[in-house]
Specification:
Layout: H1 2-7, E1 15-18, E2 22-26, H2 31-52, E3 62-67, H3 70-81, E4 90-93, E5 98-102, H4 109-115, H5 119-137, H6 146-164, H7 174-188, H8 195-200, H9 208-224, H10 228-241, H11 245-248, H12 250-253, H13 255-265
Parallel strand pairs: 2-3, 3-5
Antiparallel strand pairs: 1-2, 4-5
Helix pairs in contact: 2-5, 2-6, 5-6, 6-9, 7-9
Length: 266
């Protein structure tokens, strides 16, 4: 049934490219231009495996769909998630363990021939594929909070971009620098919720964009101030514990102490 659902996302003119771990379905460009996307996805696999501390739990390829028009994207999205991500233009579907992104910004074939796949599209493809990777190794995925889910996907997208040479640093990315400015604005207006509120998902006073800024930058803070061994320990514990993992991991990973340090550093 899930295979049939994914089949509905494929058009007869789509190009299907398979690599060691991914299956990319698209009508965006020819295989030569898409080689860089395949390279990004395989680099993501390396980075995700290193971050999470273990391999993906299935031998099946991860499906990535890259649409050439918003109309094609929305048609597939409607079939899978019934409009929930119609105007997001990028999403991952837990049931099919697949990711879906539309070409951004819209570009003609002649433009793509000159510049290749836009960096924004490459970043979104990696971000959404990171979610799909995570679905395959965490059966308790739905119990994880938004700050965690969006934090690791954004972190891995930047890591991959830096490794692949299309991102100089996290702050050099326009979206990330916008998030940084958003958080500074929240701080200046004395509206930054406590980290406890973040962990509990109680961020009612923030807009959607401000919440994402908090998710991204708090996760970055944890990754940049935590040893590699502790990171692996955290992800292994999260996989084992499931719902409520943040409080039960606290004594072992010192989330509370990290939270206090974050608050003090701001």
């Amino acid at each position: 049934m899930l295979i049939a659902a994914l089949a509905l996302c494929v058009c007869s003119e789509d190009l299907v490219i398979t690599s060691e771990h991914f299956r990319l379905t698209t009508a965006v460009a020819d295989s030569e231009r898409l080689d860089e996307v395949i390279g990004d996805l395989e680099q993501l696999w390396i980075n995700a495996t290193e971050l999470f501390g273990f391999e993906h739990s299935t031998d099946e390829l991860i499906d990535v769909f890259f649409y050439d028009t918003a109309e094609a994207y929305q048609l597939a999205e409607q079939k899978l998630t019934q409009g929930a991500f119609a105007t997001s233009y990028a999403f991952s579907d837990y049931n099919t363990k697949s990711s879906h992104v539309v070409l951004q910004p819209p570009s003609s074939p002649s433009v793509l021939e000159r510049i290749g796949i836009p960096k924004q599209s490459r970043k979104l493809l990696v971000h959404e594929a990171a979610h799909a990777f995570f679905y395959g190794i965490y059966n308790n995925y739905r119990s994880f909070p938004d700050w965690w889910a969006e934090g690791y996907a954004t972190w891995l997208a930047a890591e991959t971009g830096i490794d692949r040479g299309w991102m100089d640093s996290r702050s050099s990315d326009p979206n990330s620098s916008t998030r940084e400015q958003q958080l500074l604005d929240i701080l200046d207006s004395d509206r930054l919720p406590s980290v406890e509120a973040l962990l509990l998902g109680k961020l009612e006073g923030l807009t959607g964009g401000e919440k994402y800024a908090y998710y991204e930058l708090f996760f970055r803070f944890l990754m940049e101030t935590t040893s590699d061994a502790k990171k692996v320990e955290l992800f292994r514990e999260a996989r084992r514990l499931g719902a409520g993992w943040d409080s039960r991991c606290d004594s072992r990973w010192s989330l509370k102490r990290s939270s206090e340090t974050w608050q003090e550093s701001k």
